[in-house]
Amino acid sequence: MNKYLIFRTDRIGDFIFSRMITDAIKKKNSSNIIDFVCSSYNANYVRNFKDVNKIFILDKYNLNLMIKNLIAINSEKYDYLIVLDGKRRSIFFSLLLSAKYKIAVLKDWRPFLLLKLFYDKFIINSEVKSQYNNFTSLANLIDLKISKNIDYYKSYRFKKKSKYITPSNFTLLHLDEKWFEGFYYKDFIYMNLNKKNFDLLIKTIFNKFKKPIIMTSGYTKIPILNEIIKKNFIKIKDDEFVSKKYKNRLQFFDNTDFQDLELIVKKSKAVICCEGAISHVSHSFGKITYALINDINTAIFWTNHMPKIKLIARNKISYICKDLKRI
Amino acid sequence: MNRIKIIHIADLHFRHNGRLFYSTGKKINNGLILNGHNVLNISDRDVTKQSRNIFDIKGKKFLFNLILENIKNFKPDMILFGHVDRLNYLSLLELKNKFKQIKFAQWFLDPLIKKGPDYQKNKDRFFLKYQFCDGNFITTSPSEIDFVNREKTFFIPNPIDPSIDIYKNYLSEHQFDIFIAISHGQHRGILKKDFTDNRVQVIKKLTKKATYNIFGYKNNPVWGQNFFNELNKCSMAINLSRGEPIKYYSSDRIASLLGNGLLTFIHENYEYQKFFNKNEIVTFKNINDLNKKILFFKKNKKLQKKIAANGHKKAHKIFNNQLISEFIVNKTMGENIKKKYSWMNE
After folding, report:
1. Each residue of A14-27: pLDDT tens digit?
2. Which residues of A touch B (CB under 8 A)?
3. Do B97 and A128 touch (CB under 8 A)?
4. Closest residue of B to A128, CA-based?
5. Other CB atoms closer than 10 Å to residue B24's CB: what's the count?
6. Angle between helical axes of B119-130 and A131-141 (0-180°, round to 10)
7. Dihedral (Cα; A194, A199, A203, A206), 10-degree rounding
8. Neighbours of A15 (CB within 10 A)
9. Interface pTM (ipTM) of the complex?
10. pLDDT digits 0-9 by tens, A248-272
11. Contact check, Cβ <8 Å, A126/B132
């Protein structure tokens, strides 16, 4: 039996992707212990996995908590310390932690000297290979074998009940901040979705799937999305809206948390979203998934482990609609 | 067959002054050239040996820059690595990142057996390049290795080169019955003090009723032309490899034994029966079985020569260096394999 401490202080999608490592650890020996260092943002979600033993919160603004966790972690005597997120805060914090074997995945920030001094090995999450292959390399370095068929939701506690009532057969359109300029990476291409072209997108989805549409969004409040909702929907109860034009065939669920979204994805027939946590969830459930991606040429880096996913290049809504019809 | 430009980075043993002129790297290199490819050689270990200085103690920076310059000038379609341990992870990443259009491949001859010698060391050496290579060619069956992707990892036998393996021992009578050669590493050349392994245990239990020409046990191994001179004094040979037998893995010495017409004995757990039938090679189950078979073939000279001749003919046909080199190129470049031999499907 070995004890593993894994740093994953970034987004929920990244954590879901990392399930391939936890899956391999448990497959190697089911009594292996896996603890996580999370951010306060993703910790609540990570808690839902029964195979995660302990969670330590890493908050760079809370010195007391850092010291407390430093002592607690060092008293655990880990066999393996794995920094998967490549964040500066994780690398610096982990320098002070002891483990028999320390390994890190690096992104753009690459402090080679520090790593040579304090780590056994590192790999770079470079786009030369897919992220899946990079993680396979990491797994090999610590004698783990990543399976081709990973059940990302093994040992997961789904939310028992959701307040959102969905139809039995529907398409999910997930409009998170990645759709709208000013809320995500600056160098990404954005879809110019607005109240004028919104109806074109909805009509295309209706024509393509011939099913009702459920629309959801992320945590970030987006003014353009609010305008779209205001113009096209009527509030029927708390956090539930129906379309003025399409009535119950188009609904918008507001303020969904990630676990609500998982349940909605689970019930859906097809999902349209930007590549990220929701596309991972959707692909894991075996749903027909259309994911918008910034660069189709480098898409394999992100989606190599999701062979059935259908990719659409991020572009203006009119092009997205054409691609949706075509694919 | 498309003729391509290949940079072959492998130890060509210039610093060994001809002692290892029959190395696998050289045989593969000859195969590539005979197939009409334009091959540029970089003998990595010779380069680092000659370029060490106080600012570049192991000569690795010099080697990396030399490789970069060679790629820029030669513009290869493929880079084939041998046992190149002088490039680190970051250097390989940079090469792959800078030259995305070039296909990368490696051949690797050392055992990748969990229970075998130097497993972790060999795995690390192989895996370092494996991560970046489009084709990986190993002398162990990929089905026995749990960490490789079989879509890009393939078995190759140890190659026989008709310009090097030129003898036909089955045609004449010899001073000794059995040739056995083991070593503690071909670069080292001489034996390690107080070191023993499973091969010595086998040698100690061999029947005393046969005559032996043994190197690497009690006396130092022989190299260069002396190796072939000593091999030519024998009619039969036992192929001994380090570690537990594993599917298809063998010391590269097997190519010299089969390729020069000696009747070759090999443990059945190496599963060479898949490539050679009982009229071409002799397999044994254990030491008693081996001793029985040695004595049988010592008495039955005619059959001994016949099997040795058949084995020689078959080995030159299916383990030929041109064939293996072409398999490496075609698999790496994603081209069809025209000649199909059983080892190509492993």
Report:
1. 999 999 999 999 99
2. 112, 123-124, 126, 128-129, 133, 137, 140-141, 145
3. yes
4. B97
5. 23
6. 170
7. 80
8. 27
9. 0.73
10. 999 999 999 999 999 999 999 999 9
11. no
